[in-house]
Amino acid sequence: MQTFTAPITGNYKLEVWGASGGNSYNDNEHPEYTNTVYGGKGGYCSGIVTFPSNLNIYVYIGLSGEGSLEQTFNGGGSAGASYNGQSGGGATDVRLTEGNTWREFSSLKSRIIVAAGGGGAHHYFYGNNGGYAGGLFGQDGFKSGHNVVNEQLYTIATGAIQTSGGKGGVDNQQGNRHGGNGFFGVGGIANNYDHGGGGGSGYYGGGGGGNADDNVGSGAGGSSFISGYTGCNAIAESSTEDNIIHTGQPNHYSGYIFTNSVMIDGGSVMPSPTGGTETGHEGNGYCIITWQQLPQ
Question: Of the four, 7, 34, 115, 295, which is 20 to 30 A from 67 by CA?
Fold first, then answer.
């Protein structure tokens, strides 16, 4: 987390990039399968907002799931316990309230702009890419299987939407191998057996991959949010962690509303933080704050 204090009253352009889910390079149990599968790429959000002088905002930068089995900073879901599942990418967001931890609800609900993270890849037999980060809706995860007969016993992890996290991959054969659901600001964990990719974080997090016999799933992407952006669904200030109330309109309760907003999912061409363009954001998250001009 980094703190930014507005030096003067004026318009500021905020650009945020979510982190990508981890890549997976080979199947430790079946070394003949060595194709690389890729974590879902992070999303991009930007907009212009007016801040008063001396306002503190708090920038939480998502950590990539690359090389990780653990939950990543700012909400990427953890991967399966062994083999080569990878964790989801953390979201990058800007908040009005600092939390003691990144997942403290009073801080999460103060987010005014959120770029989602991508789901983690998994490698079991053929492997699958993670779902890319949303826009308004995250991409579903994918599954691959060696046991064709039992493929129908597994459903994929789903991407997050504006009002709920994605559903974890569901094993309809062995009940202890479901992936975890995503939640507000948190990607779903992969199943706790030994396979699967974690869900990407976001406004809501994507579902985590599960494992049914030889059918294994990657993590799904999180959803993004920009206060004032058409299609977003803001929560009420009275919301609690156990009772999140959606208002059905896009404006954050703080009254900070963005104009000239842009929201791009992790499967599309977007500005790169280092210049030029990229298709989805790979690696750790990023934030750029640019002073514009005094309001007229």
Answer: 115
Q: List helix spans (H) across 154-229.
A: none
Residues 6 or more apart whose CB falls under 8 angstroms from that of 160 comprise 116, 134, 137, 138, 166, 182, 199, 200, 202, 203, 204, 205, 206, 207, 220, 221, 222, 223
Q: What's the domain count of the chain?
A: 1
**Domain ranges, residue 181:** 1-296
The three-class DSSP label of residue 137 is coil
pLDDT, averaged across the chain: 90
pLDDT classification of 126: cutoffs 50, 70, 90: confident
Q: What is the residue type of 66?
A: E
Q: What is the DSSP letter of 113?
A: E
CA distance 237 to 227: 14
| DSSP element (H, E) containing 106 | helix 105-108
Phi, psi (rounded to 5 degrees) for 107:
-80, -45
* Residues contacting 175, CB < 8 A, separation 6+: none
Give CA–CA dist 121/143, Å, rounded.
Answer: 10
Contact indicator for 20, 290 with CB cutoff of 8 Å: no
Residue 183 pLDDT exceeds 70 = yes
Sequence-separated (6 or more) residues with CB below 8 Å from residue 295: 9, 10, 11, 50
